[in-house]
Amino acid sequence: MPHTIALVDDDRNILTSVSMTLEAEGFTVRTYTDGESALQGLLARPVDLAVLDIKMPRMDGMELLQRLRQRSGMPVIFLTSKDDELDELMGLRLGADDYITKPFSQRLLLERIRTLLRRNEASRAEGSGTPQGGVIARGDLVLDETKHTCSWKGKPVQLTVTEFLLVKALAVRPGMVKNRDQLIDAAYGENIYVDDRTIDSHVKRVRKKFRAVDDSFGQIETLYGIGYRYKEA
């Protein structure tokens, strides 16, 4: 079955042109012109991936993403204003998987959509060569690749696709330092350019989620100027 993509933007020209491109590539597309209608539609009929503009009437993209993340871990790409770093960082901290700045190349958007969908499917597939049929256990941390679930001390931790892949990349080899380029490759795939601050924002959000479950969580360590590592409890 074709993947279903949601486009949420108050610019009808963007909705029309991007929809035509995606449909020509075999995707099913649903469009929304404001955040409120998108929230109702996406909760009633989930999609495989959503592309959200930030500045929209009735409910902006930031609030829409925040509301969606309470119910769904679907991959999300943000469309941000050119050179607006605040929008990008806020979007990542709220749980966006990727962002593209306007004006953007539709071929680039298509590539990012396909990359995210591949990662989402791969992370849900049974891991080859992973102990216990796709389950990674590191002390109090349990990652289930088959179900795409994460728990800490027996309590669920809701992670997005990107966050799940980052935690997995660190946890599979406790004590080993991963630099930002290695984490970008693990979370986004090779040949995808992502700014270093994107990884830093994702790690901050991951820590916040674990500390909401256990305020003493400190397994993800920062080595300033080098990268990150997972310290097994």
TrEMBL record:
<dbReference type="GO" id="GO:0000156">
    <property type="term" value="F:phosphorelay response regulator activity"/>
</dbReference>
<dbReference type="InterPro" id="IPR036388">
    <property type="entry name" value="WH-like_DNA-bd_sf"/>
</dbReference>
<dbReference type="InterPro" id="IPR011006">
    <property type="entry name" value="CheY-like_superfamily"/>
</dbReference>
<dbReference type="GO" id="GO:0045893">
    <property type="term" value="P:positive regulation of DNA-templated transcription"/>
</dbReference>
<keyword id="KW-0963">Cytoplasm</keyword>
<feature type="domain" description="OmpR/PhoB-type">
    <location>
        <begin position="133"/>
        <end position="232"/>
    </location>
</feature>
<dbReference type="InterPro" id="IPR039420">
    <property type="entry name" value="WalR-like"/>
</dbReference>
<feature type="modified residue" description="4-aspartylphosphate">
    <location>
        <position position="53"/>
    </location>
</feature>
<dbReference type="InterPro" id="IPR016032">
    <property type="entry name" value="Sig_transdc_resp-reg_C-effctor"/>
</dbReference>
<feature type="DNA-binding region" description="OmpR/PhoB-type">
    <location>
        <begin position="133"/>
        <end position="232"/>
    </location>
</feature>
<dbReference type="Pfam" id="PF00072">
    <property type="entry name" value="Response_reg"/>
</dbReference>
<protein>
    <submittedName>
        <fullName>Two-component system response regulator ChvI</fullName>
    </submittedName>
</protein>
<feature type="domain" description="Response regulatory">
    <location>
        <begin position="4"/>
        <end position="117"/>
    </location>
</feature>
<keyword id="KW-0597">Phosphoprotein</keyword>
<keyword id="KW-0902">Two-component regulatory system</keyword>
<dbReference type="GO" id="GO:0005829">
    <property type="term" value="C:cytosol"/>
</dbReference>
<dbReference type="GO" id="GO:0032993">
    <property type="term" value="C:protein-DNA complex"/>
</dbReference>
<keyword id="KW-0238">DNA-binding</keyword>
<dbReference type="InterPro" id="IPR001867">
    <property type="entry name" value="OmpR/PhoB-type_DNA-bd"/>
</dbReference>
<dbReference type="GO" id="GO:0000976">
    <property type="term" value="F:transcription cis-regulatory region binding"/>
</dbReference>
<dbReference type="InterPro" id="IPR001789">
    <property type="entry name" value="Sig_transdc_resp-reg_receiver"/>
</dbReference>
<keyword id="KW-0805">Transcription regulation</keyword>
<dbReference type="Pfam" id="PF00486">
    <property type="entry name" value="Trans_reg_C"/>
</dbReference>
<keyword id="KW-0804">Transcription</keyword>
